[in-house]
């Protein structure tokens, strides 16, 4: 009896739990926030006070159009033949006849140079411009050109015209690994002739640019910024505006008796025929049962888009074959669980045209799971489609949020400008008991604060209107507006509030960056007759519960740490590889291995994501890998000294492999006539500078260290800073500290070295070493430079308008600080004047490497893997994949010379980068060399903080370095 009661109690508890779970799932599935449906053009324009127009945006498109609003838009259509140019600059400009199926003469333009054309405008007015182009092979990134009219940029945005490439799946059929999991389809370029109307690449302007041209002769110039392309013609015309839905035939036709019946066409999202970026590849969704194909136990390629499809201008195309002419509904099975408080917007075009105005801003609202989004919602739009094939395109658009984001970005620029001016008076640490009267000393300070407060409040109000509720999206903006109001009410508190002010402006910058990202994941596209509904398979609460139960069950049998093909006992050649970076990198790498390396070589790779701190103990215990990747510069030689790394020069083709890198990249891995690793990445410092701030101060970019000293005096007078490479200790105990890059730069430029006598002794106590140390520390003792700081934030505000830092900062700033786009640059570091008058701009290089462990059983197979991984093709593909997955901030700093050339750098910036790369020098790793960086750091602090004379400090600590090198050489039996 007790057992029966116990069993009943257990069954009842289970039923209650299951029922509760169902209720929770049901409630949460419908509890997501809904955004208001705002008719196109119904939001009022945000008025900006006149005082706020005194910024760089006075040269922007919005201001350009404000003076031409009353101009007519003539009904003109003129074509300029690309081959009829009047002037061309650049080596890669040449004519092509009947190129790729396009009749007539086309013009090939390279990634540098410019071409001029004459045009006779028949009537004064506003015009659109477009180009028919063909994206020839380049570096796989979007093509970029700048447009000049009569030798001048009409507005700032015209310097960044973008022309997309076309990408598609390499194969129509999805391949699988040996575990039955789908492999991600490889993306290949499928170029075609296209017409692109000149428009805003940032997405702030929803309509294509209108150019004001007076009657008569004009010169149009296209200047290459990035990537080559072939141009067939340039067109001057006025684009037709899409009419509202209410004026279309579909909306006005009430009699539907003669329309197609019982038509349900489903196109899988992953079956897209084209996309604008190789990163818009089909993906796998395992968190929902609503997708198709579905599997709870295996990886299935079943969606497209997601977080990768987040930037304005990115598009995906599908082809649909309509069985008969008539009216249809269009819908999507989609998931938008990425941005809450705002919604993702897409522009829908059919065969290249927007069917009606509402489809220029189709909203996809937030919801935690997949749902069916029918265009038009409950009152679904009726699209007229003719029988036959049609191309449907969804293009990422900022929609109604565009003017709001642009206003916040402009506001951020103004607020940072005011922060800089306040800083010039108060410094970074204002005296709490002093009245600086900044409102009297800075013209229009309170007026700007008042105008920006009003603008931010208007933005917050419109955000609430769009989202239909209060959200964290508006909270940050309202916080900034509130602080501005408090500063206006009590101007004497402005200096005391600077820290909070800086924090809030930093938050605004993050908001701008995130608000521009509007991801969307598509499972399927539907075209249905107006009498059919789209089935919602797998979307109910019970389906969700069943999915979770299946996932839980299969978790007992599936090893989720194994990625891709898993080597079996029959496999004869297998390499175990450890990687110490993130899971995204590991997943991308494993996909590339399974796609190209294993099929081509027959060698299986077991890739494991581990903490590289375990590499040494694992190796000592015999549990280490065959190959270790992305390791620091200090590890290969340390392992080589202990006979734990393989000398790569023993392989017959090593010399050929070595040619893929600069000599400086090999130096840290060379030891005792051998080389014990291949370089993966190589980084070095560049000089970053704010063009606008230096112009305000009347300063030029320094060319040598004497120029830097002169510049420091002016910056100090204005309470601004110069960023020297930070001097900091290791972030965790036991981690090696490399020699400070600024000391290394000056030492190399002065003709010095870190070691002498075949790397048996430290050379820091030499005359050059001591004088360089003194010169380096004087920057901190005489000019009080900061030792530790956040360069990106200070550079963004202008507090630190110039500084030396790793060149990968370029990638971060490109994404992190959109409000200063075009207002900064980077150039080679200042040099040291030599006896012959030349400048020595040598800089030290850093980076990471891939190493083969001595315990590798299949050393030939491991070598094949290392060669493949560091090859030009693989490194270039990995760089593109990571940039697509994580954004431009993740641009890969490969050490492979040709692979770096193939990454999508703007031509002018890459020319500066390459010039500096030619002067990079490697710093050798020696036994006991870990003391060099550590005691250089100690000597620095003893002089700068302890106020001990520089010569005494460096001499004392160099002795410790000498002793450690001697001890280690004796330990390893070295002469």
Protein architecture, described:
- The protein is an alpha+beta fold and 975 residues long.
- The longest helix has 28 residues.
- The strands form eleven sheets. Strands 1, 3, 4, 6, 11, 12 and 14 form a seven-stranded antiparallel β-sheet that branches.
- Helix content is 33%, strand content 22%.
- Helix 10 packs antiparallel against helix 22.
- The protein contains 26 helices and 43 strands.
- The termini are far apart.
What distinguishing features does this structure have?
26 helices; 7-stranded antiparallel sheet; 43 strands; alpha+beta; single chain; globular; 975 residues; disordered N terminus
Strand content: 15-25%
Mean pLDDT across all amino acids:
87
Helical content class? 25-40%
Number of helices: 26
Helix/strand-derived category reads alpha+beta
Distance between the terminal alpha carbons, to the nearest Å?
Answer: 86 Å
Give start-end ranges of low-pLDDT stretches.
1-12, 18-36
- Largest sheet composition: 7 strands, antiparallel
Shape: globular
Rg, rounded, reads 31 Å
Number of separate strands? 43
Write the layout of secondary structure elements.
Blueprint: H1 2-29, H2 61-66, E1 78-81, E2 87-89, E3 94-97, E4 105-109, E5 114-121, E6 125-134, E7 143-149, E8 161-163, E9 167-169, E10 187-189, E11 194-197, E12 211-213, E13 216-226, E14 229-237, H3 249-252, E15 264-268, E16 274-275, E17 282-284, E18 301-306, E19 315-322, E20 326-335, E21 344-350, E22 362-364, E23 371-374, E24 383-385, E25 388-397, H4 402-426, H5 438-441, H6 445-467, H7 472-489, H8 498-515, E26 520-529, H9 541-554, E27 574-579, H10 583-601, E28 604-609, H11 615-620, E29 627-632, H12 635-641, H13 654-658, H14 663-666, E30 670-671, E31 674-675, E32 678-683, E33 685-690, H15 691-697, H16 705-717, E34 722-723, H17 741-749, E35 755-756, E36 761-762, H18 767-781, H19 791-797, E37 802-806, H20 809-816, E38 824-827, E39 832-833, E40 839-840, E41 843-844, E42 846-852, H21 859-870, H22 872-886, H23 897-902, H24 907-917, E43 920-921, H25 930-944, H26 950-971
Parallel strand pairs: 27-28, 27-29, 34-37, 41-43
Antiparallel strand pairs: 1-14, 2-5, 3-4, 4-14, 5-13, 6-11, 6-12, 6-14, 7-8, 7-13, 9-10, 15-26, 16-19, 17-18, 18-26, 19-25, 20-23, 20-24, 20-26, 21-22, 21-25, 29-42, 30-31, 32-42, 33-37, 33-38, 35-36, 39-40
């Amino acid at each position: 009896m007790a057992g029966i009661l116990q069993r009943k109690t257990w069954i009842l508890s289970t039923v209650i739990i299951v029922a509760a779970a169902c209720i929770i799932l049901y409630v949460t599935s419908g509890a997501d926030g809904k955004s208001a449906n705002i008719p196109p053009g119904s939001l009022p324009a945000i008025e900006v006070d006149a005082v706020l127009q005194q910024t760089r945006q006075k040269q922007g498109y919005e201001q350009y159009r404000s003076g031409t609003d009353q101009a007519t838009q003539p009904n003109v259509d003129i074509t300029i033949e690309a081959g009829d140019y009047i002037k061309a600059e650049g080596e890669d400009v040449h004519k092509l006849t009947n190129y790729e199926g396009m009749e007539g003469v086309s013009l090939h333009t390279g990634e540098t140079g410019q071409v001029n054309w004459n045009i006779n405008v028949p009537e004064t007015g506003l015009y659109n411009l477009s180009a028919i182009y063909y994206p020839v092979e380049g570096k796989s990134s979007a093509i970029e050109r700048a447009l000049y009219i009569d030798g001048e940029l009409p507005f700032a945005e015209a310097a960044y015209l973008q022309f997309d490439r076309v990408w598609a799946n390499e194969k129509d059929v999805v391949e699988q690994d040996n575990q039955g999991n789908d492999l991600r389809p490889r993306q290949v370029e499928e170029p075609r002739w296209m017409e692109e109307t000149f428009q805003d690449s940032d997405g702030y302007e929803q309509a294509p640019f209108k150019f004001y041209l007076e009657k008569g002769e004009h010169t149009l110039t296209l200047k290459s910024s990035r990537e080559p392309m072939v141009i067939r013609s340039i067109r001057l015309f006025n684009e037709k505006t899409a009419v509202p839905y209410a004026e279309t035939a579909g909306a006005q036709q009430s009699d539907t008796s003669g329309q197609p019946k019982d038509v349900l066409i489903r196109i899988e999202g992953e079956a897209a025929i084209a996309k604008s970026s190789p990163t818009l590849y089909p993906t796998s969704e395992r968190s929902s049962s609503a997708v198709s194909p579905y599997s709870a136990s295996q990886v299935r390629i079943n969606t497209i888009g997601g977080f990768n499809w987040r930037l304005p201008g990115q598009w995906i195309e599908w082809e649909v074959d309509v069985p008969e002419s008539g009216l249809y509904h269009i819908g999507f099975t989609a998931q938008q669980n990425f941005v809450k408080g705002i919604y993702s917007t897409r522009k829908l075009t059919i065969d290249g045209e927007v069917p009606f105005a509402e489809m220029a801003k189709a909203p996809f609202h937030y919801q935690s799971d997949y749902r069916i989004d029918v265009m038009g919602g409950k009152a679904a739009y009726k699209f007229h489609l003719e029988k036959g094939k049609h191309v449907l395109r969804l293009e990422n658009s900022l929609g109604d949020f565009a003017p709001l984001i642009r206003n916040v970005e402009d506001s951020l620029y103004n607020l940072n400008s005011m922060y800089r001016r306040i800083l010039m008076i108060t410094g970074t640490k204002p005296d709490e008991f002093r009245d600086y009267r900044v409102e009297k000393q800075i013209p229009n300070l309170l007026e700007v604060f008042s105008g920006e407060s009003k603008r931010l409040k208007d933005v917050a109000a419109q955000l609430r209107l769009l989202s239909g509720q209060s959200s964290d999206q508006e909270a940050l903006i309202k916080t900034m507006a509130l602080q501005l109001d408090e500063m206006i009410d009590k101007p004497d508190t402005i200096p005391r509030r600077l820290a909070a002010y800086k924090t809030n402006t930093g938050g605004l910058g993050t908001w701008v960056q995130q608000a521009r990202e509007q991801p969307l994941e598509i499972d399927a596209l539907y075209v249905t007759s107006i009498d059919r509904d789209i089935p919602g398979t797998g979307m109910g609460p019970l389906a969700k519960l069943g999915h979770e139960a299946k996932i839980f069950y299969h978790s007992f049998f599936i090893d989720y740490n194994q990625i891709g093909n898993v080597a079996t006992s029959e496999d004869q050649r297998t390499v175990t590889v450890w990687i110490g970076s993130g899971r995204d990198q590991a997943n991308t790498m494993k996909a590339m291995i399974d796609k190209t390396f294993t099929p081509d070589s027959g060698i299986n790779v077991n890739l494991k994501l581990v903490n590289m701190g375990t590499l040494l103990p694992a190796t000592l215990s015999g549990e280490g890998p065959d190959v270790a990747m992305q390791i620091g510069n200090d590890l290969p030689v340390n392992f080589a000294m202990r006979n734990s790394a393989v000398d790569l020069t023993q392989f017959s083709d090593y010399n050929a492999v070595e040619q893929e890198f600069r000599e400086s990249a090999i130096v840290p891995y060379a030891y005792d006539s051998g080389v014990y690793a291949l370089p993966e990445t190589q980084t070095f410092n560049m000089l970053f500078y704010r063009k606008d701030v230096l112009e305000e101060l009347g300063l030029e970019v320094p060319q040598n260290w004497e120029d830097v000293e002169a510049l420091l005096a002016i910056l100090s007078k204005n309470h601004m800073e110069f960023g020297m490479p930070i001097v900091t200790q290791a972030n965790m105990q036991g981690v090696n500290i490399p020699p400070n890059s600024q000391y290394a730069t000056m030492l190399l430029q002065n003709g010095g070295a870190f070691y002498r006598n075949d790397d048996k002794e430290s050379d820091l106590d030499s005359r050059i070493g001591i004088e360089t140390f003194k010169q380096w520390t004087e920057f901190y003792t005489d000019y009080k430079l900061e030792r530790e700081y956040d360069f990106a934030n200070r550079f963004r505000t202008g507090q630190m308008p110039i500084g030396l830092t790793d060149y990968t900062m370029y990638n971060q700033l490109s994404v992190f600080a959109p409000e200063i786009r075009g207002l900064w640059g980077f150039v080679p570091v200042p040099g040291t004047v030599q006896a012959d008058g030349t400048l020595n701009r040598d800089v030290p290089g850093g980076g990471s490497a891939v190493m083969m462990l001595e315990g590798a059983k299949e050393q030939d197979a491991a070598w094949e893997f290392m060669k493949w991984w560091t090859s030009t093709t693989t490194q270039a593909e990995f760089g593109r994949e990571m940039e697509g997955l994580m954004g431009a901030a993740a641009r890969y700093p490969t050490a492979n010379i040709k692979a770096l050339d193939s990454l999508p750098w703007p031509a002018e910036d890459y020319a500066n980068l390459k010039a500096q790369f030619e002067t990079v020098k490697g710093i050798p790793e020696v036994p006991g060399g870990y003391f060099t960086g550590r005691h250089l750091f100690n000597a620095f602090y003893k002089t700068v903080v302890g106020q001990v004379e520089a010569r005494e400090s460096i001499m004392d600590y160099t002795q410790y370095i000498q002793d450690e090198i001697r001890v280690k050489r004796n330990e390893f039996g070295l002469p």
